[in-house]
Amino acid sequence: MNIELVQISEYLWEIPKTTRKDMLVPARIFASIDMLSHIKSDKSLQQLINVASLPGIVHSAVVMPDVHEGYGFPIGAVAAIDYELGIISPGGIGYDINCGVRLLKTNFHNNHIIKHIEKIGKELYNMIPSGVGKSGKIKLNQKELDAVLNTGVEWAVKEGFADKSDSEFIESSGSLKSADADKVSKQAKERGFDQLGTMGAGNHFVEIDKVEKIFNKKVAEVFGIFEGQIVIQIHTGSRGLGHQVATDYIKLMLQYAAQNKLTLPDRELSYAPIHSDVGKNYFAAMSASANFAWANRQLITWQIREAWKNVFGKNNSKIEVLYDVAHNIAKIEEHTINNFKKKLIVHRKGATRAFPAHHPEIPLKYRDVGQPVLIPGSMGTSSYILVGSDKALIESFGSTCHGAGRMLSRTKARKSLDPHKLIKELKNRGIDIITGSLKGLSEEAPEAYKSINSVVDIVHNAGIAEKIAQLKPLAVIKG
Predict the structure, then answer these.
(1) For the whole model, what pTM was predicted?
(2) 402 part of the active site
(3) Which is catalytic among the residues 59, 347, 402, 460?
(4) Is residue 439's pLDDT more than 80?
(5) Residue 356: which of 346, 368, 347 has the closest Cα?
(6) Is the pLDDT of residue 440 over 80?
(7) Distance between CA atoms of 395 and 390, rounded to whole angstroms?
């Protein structure tokens, strides 16, 4: 299918609603003209057109400049569905439910820590279990796991794994009240009993960074960020439990489609009405998985704090949560569409919430400037702290990009990139890599991804997020 794009502005393109007769809304792409040829090289735009045909979708189906082909939805997509009339689709959230990023602030300056980077990197690697299927140090029983699924970070606070202020700086306070552990299958729970506090593999990581550059000093001061500061990123999600929840409900929704004779544009784009039994059950199980992911990042935070104490002593180990935000989730939100407020279920798959100043869901400390938006780079490249904008609410349902976006498949990356050479190159650039898998290292090499600088510049120039700070990696811990 030849897909024609209409340019709306320098960084915004549209596939008109008339492109295919079943499209209910246009499809929009945030990208530079240079990026379009790569975006057109996979199935991303075809998948986006499919998304634009989903029942109840409003305004437009949107993708970010880090877009690439995914399961059902392209990765980097945002779709807002009418909560009263529409559907929910697991493909619009992804298998790693509430994969997201947390950024921790330390009171260390780079000059005071640089000689200890290798030591603290190894301590973090020893403290945080990583790798495919890796078990954690905390083993939950059925009652404890259900508490995690139902309450998320609230459980971690009660059990002493969180500081009192931590939940204030987590999206939704790290606890979705729509969660119901009873809607999570026995098989999914079995995969979660021993995975709390673990990183996993793939593109997940813990990373020690320094704040390399400040773009907006006023907002940076509100966030508690200064040049040269040591910060720590956590990027992981709901592990095998969330993956199993997605698997379970995709199967159930395919059965629902067959029973109700739904015509799916793509078998991977299965869905159910949000108020059907299977739709309600999936939303409750997805919310429980999101709570598990927030608790998981909280347990990793606790392990990082313990590692910091082991290396630097108890009196030099203040570590605070700047923010924690999901980029694979569906949330019930209210947005203004054609001058009317509408209750929507916003699917974000590989897209980050980016609410502007004065939005009620932003922590009070940040409310006058906007929501922190955390955009990790690929291994060995910069990451960014952005802030949400009013324009994002108008054009992308308060959403922006989530990372660099893959250029090479994992298979191609393994075949073409030498992990030993990569470790040496990054070491020469002052970046320590600590990993248990050389194969996984090749898959996550910077060359496998788009330029994070280009992606962030596009969303900044398009006005759907503003650059606040640039981070430089010093040590990367991977599975």
Answers:
(1) 0.96
(2) yes
(3) 402
(4) no
(5) 368
(6) no
(7) 9
